[in-house]
Design goal:
about 625 residues; alpha/beta; Serine Threonine Protein Phosphatase 5, Tetratricopeptide repeat; Rossmann fold; 3 domains; eight-stranded parallel beta sheet; six-stranded parallel beta sheet
Length: about 625
């Protein structure tokens, strides 16, 4: 009997290592029939479930195995992996720490601790853990990738990019490390041709091979029928994507489109419930394999599938690589080409992607006639207050930036310091979650001191509730847009709170978002073309207290009446763009269209537009 048991579990492990999940599962079940409650079989079954994305089942199985084998570091670590996978990093941490007590030299355990610490908001402590992992196993690609994530979380994008590159050098197929490298380039800028080449490499390595799985589409090629639109995102909650998508979901014409949302996250909050109420169908795809998700989308008969993530966390670009819908587009959540040939279109506007820029995109560029997005005003009712300079001694102005502090690179700090040195009484308020960490505050204090700005003139604050965050704009006279990675949601929120924003126009999508927002509300004069102009524009505004007061009083109403907040008109324009994409596919007999970039015109009359109830 003992020999049979050993042979069974050994064979199960061999099948697992070969990726033969069903065979491994069957052998484990056989072992459990012979020995009910056997920890080895439960542990391996849990690993199979984890590999298949059945995270809750994996947590139960691995929990039973770990309870039976409390002295086994692997069992404790893998229970931590399962709990982290089901979105419980605070429960996973004790498991990893028990594993570390048993085996302090396991690099994978240090990585697991680091990931949990990042998830729970302590990226500084995560750095110490993952750096230990790199020392223990410098050839482990996951350690270097996690180090990159931690560095980005504490505002060090250049170092993060180096870690992502190291992870890729060790494992060229590490898709998350490659995506991290592409995303980190938003913060650091660099050569556009090189950025395009890197995106193409991502597509060629991680997406193109999946083209062999593409199946013929059974969608009826009728250009005028009601369309099934699918939105795929890991951010359908309190997140910028959720904020900008909400008005569109609410305003979609149900006579023209049927809306499906594919939510790749476990997080659920008030925004999630509102978004879910505006969708006709809501699918939770968290934990499903890419192949399964593609099958779900294909069975749903989606006509046009829209990516809302690009190379950000929670993306499902490898689902899009399988082409589950005949027409695919990327919009809203990312600010460059995805590099995925299976994505047909990128939705933009003439500011973020002017004529001539299409050479930097794998996708075909569709330019909407107005802004490429639509802002949903906050649910929180926070009143606009007069400029704080009216109450400050000598009328001293406070500049502010509430963007992710990773955008405040040394180059940005140098320009902002020129501004502060030109106005010796002015102050700067930075508000971003990583600034709650003492080490991050010290680094930014030292950065501004290097450029001649003492600590007393720079206030650094961490995370707060959205209501308190919005109220903090009451302490800001003029908002400063970072560069090359402009603000999106932060710019819209500043304008909503009556705070004008000074922006620097760059050479790519990510550094022209400020221009889109400011043009939409009639403030394009606050967009500068060079750092010197940027400083002069901010100084001039700071020295115009009457103008600041007038802007403060009128800006929210101006935003409300602008294209930036006109969800009804924007959604009509977007639907017309969708219709044109669909009709091109119908006319091409299911082949991807080619040719010049599209300039989508204003929405054509589509009859009565039906809007779901709030």
């Amino acid at each position: 009997m003992a020999t049979r048991e050993v042979d069974t579990i050994t064979r199960a492990r061999d099948r697992f290592r070969a990726g033969e999940w069903a065979a491994a599962e069957q052998l484990c079940q056989q072992r459990l029939r012979d020995r009910p409650g056997d920890s080895d079989a439960l542990h391996l079954l849990g690993r199979v479930a984890l590999a298949l994305g059945r995270h809750k089942i994996a947590a139960v199985l691995l929990g039973k195995a770990a309870a039976d084998r409390p002295g086994d570091a692997k069992y404790q670590r893998r229970l931590g992996e399962a709990l982290r996978a089901v979105g419980r990093p605070q429960d996973a941490l004790p498991c990893y720490r028990r594993a570390l007590e048993i085996d302090p030299a396991d690099a994978r355990t240090h990585v697991g601790i680091a990931v949990c610490l990042i998830d729970t908001g302590d990226a500084q402590a995560a750095l110490a853990s993952v750096r230990r992992a790199v020392v223990l196993d410098p050839q482990d690609a996951s350690s270097h990738r996690t180090l990159g994530v931690a560095l980005l979380s504490v505002g060090q994008p250049t170092r993060a990019a180096a870690s992502f590159r190291r992870a890729l050098a060790l494992d060229p197929d590490f898709v998350d490390a490659h995506g991290g490298l592409l995303f980190s380039s938003h913060y650091t800028g660099g050569d556009r041709a090189a950025a395009l080449a890197e995106a193409r490499r991502w597509g060629e390595r991680h997406a193109a091979p999946l083209g062999a799985t593409v199946q013929p589409h059974a969608n009826t090629p009728d250009g005028g029928r009601r369309l099934r639109i699918g939105y795929v995102s890991g951010d359908l909650h309190n997140h910028p994507v959720g904020y900008f998508l909400e008005g569109v979901l609410r305003a979609h014409d149900r006579q023209e489109v049927e809306v499906y949302c594919y939510a790749n996250a476990q997080r659920v909050d008030a925004t999630t419930y509102r978004l879910r109420g505006y969708a006709d169908h809501w699918r939770i795809i968290w934990g499903m394999s890419d192949a399964v998700v593609a099958d779900v989308i294909r069975r749903d008969g989606i006509d046009l599938l829209v990516d809302l993530s690009g190379h950000t966390a929670g993306n499902r670009l490898q689902v899009f690589a399988r082409k589950p819908a005949p027409v695919q587009a990327t919009w809203l959540g990312y600010f460059a080409t995805t590099g995925v040939e299976a994505i047909d279109y990128l939705i933009a506007d003439g500011h973020v992607c002017p004529e001539g820029d299409e050479q930097y995109y794998v996708e075909r560029v569709v330019r909407l006639p107005g802004p490429y997005l639509c802002f949903t005003p906050p649910q929180e009712e926070v009143a606009v207050v007069p400029p704080p300079s009216l109450r400050a001694p000598g009328g001293a102005v406070t500049f502010g930036c509430f963007n992710n502090v990773a955008k405040v690179t040394p180059a940005v700090a140098a320009v902002w310091s020129q501004l502060l040195n030109a106005l010796p009484e002015a102050r700067l308020l930075l508000k971003s979650a990583p600034l709650a960490l003492p080490a991050v505050r010290r680094r930014y204090t030292a950065l501004f001191r290097r450029y001649g700005v003492p600590a007393a003139r720079v206030t650094l604050e961490g995370h707060s509730s959205r209501a308190d965050y919005l109220a903090a704009y009451g302490r800001v006279d003029v908002a400063l847009d970072p560069f090359p990675y402009n603000g999106g949601t932060t710019t819209a929120e500043a304008l909503w709170m009556g705070v004008p924003v000074v922006s620097l126009r760059g050479d790519r999508f990510v550094s022209r978002m400020g221009q889109t927002h400011l043009s939409a509300v009639g403030l394009e004069a606050l967009v500068a073309d060079a750092p010197g102009d940027y400083v002069q524009t901010a100084v001039k505004l700071a020295r115009s207290p009457r103008r600041l007061t007038r802007l403060r009083a009128a800006l929210r109403r101006r935003v409300e009446r602008s294209p930036l907040c006109d969800a009804f008109s924007f959604t009509g324009t977007l639907e017309t763009a969708y219709r044109a994409m669909w009709q091109e596919w119908c006319a091409s007999d299911g082949q991807r269209s080619t040719g010049a970039p599209s300039q989508m015109g204003p929405p054509a009359p589509l009859g009565e537009r039906t809007v779901p109830r709030p």
